[in-house]
Amino acid sequence: MPDALTVVVQQTINGVVLGSLYVLVALGLTLIYGVLVQINFAHADIVTVGAFAAYFFTHRFGGHYVLSIGVALAVGAVLGWLINSLVFVPLRRRGSELLPLIATIGVSILMENASLAAFGPIPYAFESPYSGQVIRLGRIFISLQHLLVIAVAGVTIGLLYAFIRYTVHGKALRAVAQDVETAGLMGINPNRLIMLTFVIGSALAGLSGALLGPVLVLTPFAGASVIVKAFAIVIIGGFGNMEGTILAGLLVGLIEAFTTQLMNPGLIDIVVFALLLATLALRPTGLIAERREENV
Amino acid sequence: MSEPGAGRRWAFRLLVLVVIALGPVVMRDTYWRSVLVVCALNVMLALGLDFVLGYAGQLNLGQAAFYGIGAYTSTLLVTRLGLSFWPSLVAGTVLAGVAGVALALFAVRLRGHYLAIASLGFAVITYQVLLQWISLTQGPLGIYAIPPPPSLALPGLPVIDFANPARMFYLVATFALLAYVVLDALVRSPIGETLAAIREDEVSAAALGINTPAWKAFAFGVGSAIAGMAGAFYASFIGTLVPDAFFMTESFTVLAMVIVGGLGTLIGPVAGAILLTVLPEALRGVGDLRLIVYGVSLTLVVLFVPGGLVGTVRTLRERVVERRAPGAATA
Question: Which of A60, B76, B84, B105 sees the fewest Cβ atoms within 10 Å?
Answer without folding.
Answer: A60
